[in-house]
Design a protein that fits this description.
about 20% strand; alpha/beta; about 40% helix; about 300 residues; two-stranded antiparallel ribbon
Length: about 300
């Protein structure tokens, strides 16, 4: 297999179009079409289904796609390493991070990183776990910061820290007067939760399932700020990660007993992919910064 053939093939799949892939690869549409036809003839299998409005990979193409992306990502990593031998610490690192972690944790990380490595540019993508893993797999991110579990074996994870999931209540809610709150106290409560496919929403739903508890959900949305504003307005209660604690007195935060729910935050990388120097430097800094990171504590705890 030739590297240009792999590049053309991956570009066509990602853009779902020969013409758009040609623009991306700085060549002509006819050249890409011709090269992929030669590629298919050499392999002996059709790699692309051209019968639809958008070009999609065949079954054989899907198999090749995963290997092709890895080969191209490894080649790029090798090129970067060679180019950076003996050079000063510089470059760009692409980092995906959950929206519920970014505001608090990243301020702590970036404050010292920018001072130590002013020539490394950090590009942040606040997103969901599913999209983050997809971008990591395609080589569009160097690393991600998300909550566990990550069950796909193509990724490697390393725990940075763990945090509690706290009950968020209106300050006048009756539960704020209890010394200890148990799941039995929540059976008649109205819950405002994130969708289950969101990180902290998934954690809340897993907690409920483990304790044979079905929350009475009145609102679901994907925005943590909206959830907290609804809690502050007295529309219900919620489970909020510790890194999302607000300093304002419009919400009371309480620990849920027996057990106290927690989530682990981890850095995720693509297995067997060599990180470029800037990404390796950022990863090492993440490890060090997580050791000194102090989780926010609400006044009500």
């Amino acid at each position: 297999m030739d590297i240009p053939h792999l590049r053309y093939f991956v570009a066509v799949v990602e853009h779902q179009s020969f013409s758009k892939a040609a623009v991306h690869c700085n060549t002509s549409t006819s050249n890409i079409s011709e090269q992929i036809q030669k590629f298919e003839k050499r392999i002996g299998k059709a790699l692309l289904d051209r019968s639809r409005r958008r070009v999609v990979p065949t079954e054989a193409g899907e198999i090749l796609l995963q290997r092709a992306r890895k080969i191209l990502a490894d080649l790029e990593s090798a090129n970067l390493e060679v180019r950076n031998v003996g050079e000063r610490k510089a470059g760009k690192v692409l980092v995906g991070i959950l929206m519920t972690i970014a505001p608090c944790f990243l301020v702590h990380v970036l404050n010292t990183f920018v001072e130590q490595f002013p020539d490394i540019q950090v590009c942040l993508y606040e997103t969901t776990t599913a999209l983050m893993l997809s971008m990591l797999d395609m080589g569009k991110l160097d690393l991600g910061i998300t909550s566990l579990p990550v069950r796909d074996s193509v990724f490697e994870t390393e725990v940075l820290f763990s945090e509690e999931m706290l009950l968020a209540l209106h300050p006048c809610h009756p539960l704020t007067r209890k010394q200890a709150i148990y799941k039995e106290d929540l059976e008649s409560e109205k819950f405002i939760l994130s969708k289950e496919d969101h990180c902290f929403g998934g954690c809340a739903f897993r907690l409920c399932r483990r304790n044979n508890f079905s929350p009475r959900i009145v609102f679901q949305c994907g925005c943590l700020a909206t959830i907290q504003s609804l809690v502050a307005a007295g529309k219900g209660i919620s489970l909020i990660p510790q890194t999302a604690i607000l300093e304002a007195t419009t919400i009371a935060y309480r620990q849920l007993e027996n057990p106290r729910p927690r989530r682990s935050i981890a850095v995720v990388t693509r297995s067997k992919r060599i990180l470029k120097p800037a990404a390796r430097q950022f990863l090492q800094h993440l490890r060090e910064a997580s050791q000194t990171f102090k989780l926010p504590v609400a006044n009500d705890l």
